[in-house]
Amino acid sequence: MDQSLERVRRRRRSDGAGFWLVLAAGSAVAPAAVAEELRGAGAELGGDRAAAATAPLEVRVEGDRVRAPAPPKDRSVAGSVLGRDRLAGAGLEAADVLRTQPGVQVTESGGFGGPATAAIRGATAAQTPVYLAGVRLNDDVAGTADLSLVPLWLVERVEIYRGNAPIEADRLGPGGAIFFEPRRPSRTTAGVGATAGSFGARRGWAFAGVSAGPVTSIFGVSAEAAANRYAFVDDRGTLFDASDDTVQRRQNADTRTIDAWALARVDLGRGATVDVIANGTGREQGVPRLALLPSREARGEFRRALASVVARVPFGDEAQHTLEARTSFIEARSEFHDPLLELALFTRELRLAGRRLEQTLGATLHLSDRLRVRPMLSVAREGISRAPDDIPLARARRSFARGAVSAELRLGEGLALHALASGECHATGVDPERPCDALAPTGRVGVEVGSDRLRVLATVGRYLRVPTLGEVYGISGVVHGNAELEPEAGVTAEAGLRAQTRPGAVLRGAYLDAFVFGRATSGLIAYARAGQGYVAPYNVGRARVLGAELLTGVEVTSFLRAEIAATLLDPRDTTPERMTTNDVLPFRARLVVAPRLRAAWKPPDRGVLSGASGELRAVYQSSRYADPAGLGVIAEQATVDLEAEATWFGGHLATRARVADLLDARRTDIVGYPLPGRSAFFTLESTW
């Protein structure tokens, strides 16, 4: 035990050195990496042809395609794209890949399979919508989306929109949007894979794709589990006194998940298609508490059903226009079993269920060679049920309607104007004289100037974030609601440039994506503790966030690529006459740096060994305040991951290994949630 404590103390002393370690790595690889390849329609499991057609311009580097990091749904805002090869690492989860992107901050609460959320540009996770196959995953209780329930084995690419969200998103909030796009069926195929790792982590998956005439389909299932009994230091609440520290193991943090998917595409002829997606997910897990107060028998169960049907029909004299209709449904059920009343739910059994049915109709109209217009209309009905029904949340319902239109006008080779206008109606109550609790215009205008190799962008917008049903009606006896809450509103602005080198340039495959941004918010929703012992939300006042982002990459040699992502953030509470002297918003790191170095090799004879690659990446995150007063601090953290991959028999067999937190740095998140240290994962996957 004494030796373990000494190792932890050495890690504590080295945590501050983590910043210099990451900077040194960044200096070695800067200006850094390349945008990874998005798979096209002929990729392993097929790609989305529409997305491939609108993908960013590319340069060729010795047969490989290197793209600037413009997100395909809306290239006029800041964003980036992660291709399939960035998602296939051993034991990787959605939180692991997102934390390497500029502007994105991830919050974790446990080990493998543990809940995690993402926020963009100083927004909260409730302000950042996350979409899987076009269906928004954010629940309407807390407003967040759990990244641990995103199946990376099924995902073809991830699109991160750091500026305002594209028109495909049903929310134009301050936190941009994240889209997980699944693999699309294109041919007969099959695959199977398995992962094993530290702390009892294990995962297996299998899929099969069939192509029969105009119908192609893919069916897949995965199962994963983890014990998550990793060691951590319990400081017994005395942060600055190491004499009473002990090494403990995480309790009641195990998870078990089963996930099943079905995707099908029907070609109706003349360019018309119908896509059908269905998903069922089930998870059973322990519900851990803070390290100082671990739970023993609190358990949770989660079930999700998701379905979506999308029809696309081209029309016009030359089929230049497209009409699209989408119907989606999602139902999520959570059950908490708390026989010892460890979770302060005031009940031993709690059941929550949320449902959302949404219908969207949109079109893409190419009115001329220079003008493209996209109108869209969405309606939705969502609700929450709770048992026991002893609080108003059990009767919470909301109707939603939105009309939006975007336009792109190209005035020449080097100038384009963009605009998006949206009107939303949120009806939470049943008052016939007040059909809309929140009704306000949102949108943005932007401009692009420059060539394909160097482009300058600027955007100004207005957003609205309506309180969730949980914030209005409350969640439990501990967390009450506030029916008088007003929506958060604010304005956003960003300006930046995208640049990439020409073929044969000295810096081959180099690109630069740099933006500065700002946001001013009024009516921020925060929580306050009442004298009766419960907490309730209220509109706290004003805030502003300023920042800068950098994503740059280069091909160092024909087999070595490098990348560095960095985010500088200045989040401030600007409420007049606030109660605290600290004005820095909590839970937001003001500096995040993520360098990455990747080497890839392919043998010339292409024999049994098809190729090999390795990657070294690091993430540095500065300290964060844990409360509005600035009294609690989550220490700065730096982690280094090492990854290797080998493919065999023409790519049909792949072996992967990854060591996470290679230097065994001490990590915590939220308040009192210790994260695992050094861990190893191994994956074997076969596709044909």
Describe this entry's structure for a reader:
This protein has 688 residues and is mainly beta. The chain has one domain (2-687): Beta Barrel (Maltoporin, Chain A). Helices cover 6% and strands 52% of the residues. The strands form 8 sheets. It has a 22-stranded antiparallel β-barrel. β33 and β34 (633-634) form a beta hairpin. The longest helix has 14 residues, at 2-15. The radius of gyration is 25 Å and the shape is globular. It starts with a helix and ends with a strand. Residues 1-66 have low confidence and may be disordered.
User: Gap between N and C termini, in Å?
Assistant: 50 Å
CATH architectural group: Beta Barrel
Number of discrete helical segments: 5
Principal-axis shape equals globular
Overall mean confidence score, pLDDT:
83
Give the C-alpha Rg.
25 Å
The oligomeric status of these chains comes to single chain
Unreliable segments (pLDDT under 50, ≥5 consecutive)?
Answer: 1-66
CATH topology: Maltoporin, Chain A
Q: How many individual β-strands?
A: 39
Structural class: mainly beta
CATH superfamily label: TonB-dependent receptor, beta-barrel domain
- Domains (count): 1
The CATH class is Mainly Beta
Q: How would you characterize the largest beta sheet? A: 22 strands, antiparallel, barrel
Secondary structure: helix percent: under 10%
Structure, briefly:
Helix content is 6%, strand content 52%.
Topology:
Blueprint: H1 2-15, H2 18-29, H3 49-53, E1 58-61, E2 64-67, E3 79-82, H4 94-98, E4 104-108, E5 116-120, E6 130-132, E7 135-136, E8 155-161, E9 177-182, E10 189-197, E11 202-212, E12 215-226, E13 231-234, E14 246-249, E15 255-269, E16 272-286, E17 299-315, E18 321-337, E19 349-366, E20 371-387, E21 397-412, E22 415-427, E23 438-450, E24 454-465, H5 469-473, E25 488-500, E26 511-522, E27 525-529, E28 535-539, E29 542-555, E30 560-573, E31 591-601, E32 609-621, E33 624-625, E34 633-634, E35 637-648, E36 653-660, E37 668-669, E38 673-674, E39 679-687
Parallel strand pairs: 6-9
Antiparallel strand pairs: 1-2, 3-8, 4-5, 6-7, 8-9, 10-11, 10-39, 11-12, 12-15, 13-14, 15-16, 16-17, 17-18, 18-19, 19-20, 20-21, 21-22, 22-23, 23-24, 24-25, 25-26, 26-29, 27-28, 29-30, 30-31, 31-32, 32-35, 33-34, 35-36, 36-39, 37-38
